[in-house]
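Chapter summary example.
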Amino acid sequence: MAFARTMSLDTAALMSTALEGILYGFSVLMFIGTIWTLTHKHSMRDANRPVAAAAVLLLILSTAHIILGIVRTEYGLVTYRNTYQGGPAAYFADVSQTTNVIKNSIYVVQTLLGDAVAIYRCYVVWQAAWVIILPSMLWCGVAVTGALSVYGDSQTSSTAVISAEATMECMGVFCALTLAANLSSSGLLAYRIWKIERNVSTSRATKVMTTSIMRVIMDAAILYTIALLSTIIGSLCSGSGPFVLIDMLTPIISITFYMVIIRIAIGKSTHSQILNVRGGMTSETERGSSQYSMKPMQVHISRSTHTDGTPVYGIWNQNRPPTRKEALEGAMSSA
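The structure predicted for these 335 residues follows.
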């Protein structure tokens, strides 16, 4: 964290806004893909409304967060650059600023929403309330520490009881509980899918489908886990690094949510195409075999006999089953 220790707060604010803007652009594109996935070939009545509502809320929160980040950066570097005592670095060090408090509130709400969706998925797959007891307790801990962190930010400058270091430690506990809730819900969900695959699936196509779903969920969990671990380590080592990482977490939450929906939809589409191709090949084979099935064929044989030197021509009828070559030639000639 030597880089974080030497980086000033105004530089960290500018960098966090730029990086968040890049990730926000990706999240907007993935939001469009998510809405298309949920509504394509589906009526509004058949669409998954809870998932669509969660996607829209995540976009709104991400948009509000980056707008406040841009406004706060503009205030610190332009508007109050020469009027705020201590300059831009002192402005960004003041976490009790209204824009910073609202930003952190949005981040807490978005984290709670993303974790709630993960717990809801776990409940839907397990269909048992006892499974989500531990993730729900961790989620409540996330809500409490998040509220304390926001309250600490708003009271840092007005009282000497709450310091910026204590607020950052509270944010570290918040991220640790978020990590535990995310890992527990994602782990339970992946275990349930793996168990269903072992007990139910009998075909290779079904196994491939369930394995791909489990892989998508684990990939999203790993991405979010790496971001949270980086934030936790940064908060423990102090410096300005956590300010950059926390701002980047907001679009990452949306990206992981959209990624699961889009990749599962792509996997389902590929799976259905494979089944259609296999079904078409099977139907063509069955139709061809029924078309060229062997049937009895009547053969007229003409023989000539000589009696007293006089040729006599007779027509004999004889029924016999045709050979494969004869059946094929007959079918080709009648086609």
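To summarize the output: DSSP finds ten helices and two strands in the chain.
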